[in-house]
Amino acid sequence: MKPSLETVFRDNLKFYRRRAKLSQEKLSSLLDKNINYINMIEGGKSIPPLSVIEQIAEILQVEPHCFLEPREGMQPFDRVQFVEAASTQIAQQSREILLNLLG
Question: How much is the pLDDT for 70?
Fold first, then answer.
């Protein structure tokens, strides 16, 4: 079943916000909105006007239409998987640095 346009918008907003490493609180602050503003949007309780979508797009450095286009294969953010992958990379890079330092 094809997701609704509202679902696509919310999923893309979450994706691009997380990619920009911004919390909901920080994005709300940058928009000069209430601390819960992005939470309400991402939670499906509110839909922002087009002018706010343009502001969000500018902050997240994407084109506004990107919020409305379904992303194929878009996976929800998995913190455990992210931490495991980052830990592995950090361990490998640390090992290489130590080997270089020790000769």
Answer: 87
Quote the tokens at residue 55: 């502001």
Residue 60 to residue 41: CA distance in whole angstroms: 15
The confidence band for 72, taking pLDDT boundaries of 50, 70 and 90, is confident
**Contacts for 36 with CB less than 8 Å, ≥ 6 apart:** 24, 28
What pTM was estimated for this model as a whole? 0.68
3-state secondary structure the chain: CCCCHHHHHHHHHHHHHHHCCCCHHHHHHHCCCCCCHHHHHHCCCCCCCHHHHHHHHHHHCCCHHHHCCCCCCCCCCCHHHHHHHHHHHHHHHHHHHHHHHHC
